[in-house]
Prior knowledge:
Layout: H1 2-20, E1 31-36, E2 40-48, H2 53-63, E3 68-73, E4 79-86
Antiparallel strand pairs: 1-2, 2-4, 3-4
Amino acid sequence: MTASRIAGIQRQLTEGLARIDPHHRLLGRPTTYRVIDGQTLEITFRDVTGIAEAEVLGVKRSLGGECYCTVSPQTAEHVTVRFVVPL
């Protein structure tokens, strides 16, 4: 069940980013997926030059359900954007 849920989330995200990320801030960035405690999926985008609230909300809508986002500095020019999605 978890593997199919993760595959579904990845598919939703891939399809959704084409529509909600017109400036390609997330699209094409190094992305990792990590399951935490078998209950949540952490999606991390690295080397992001910046992100707007509208893009964060678009990703949340694309993923559906409850989803949390954090943005943290990575370097002086880039941030790391993490989304946490319950499985």
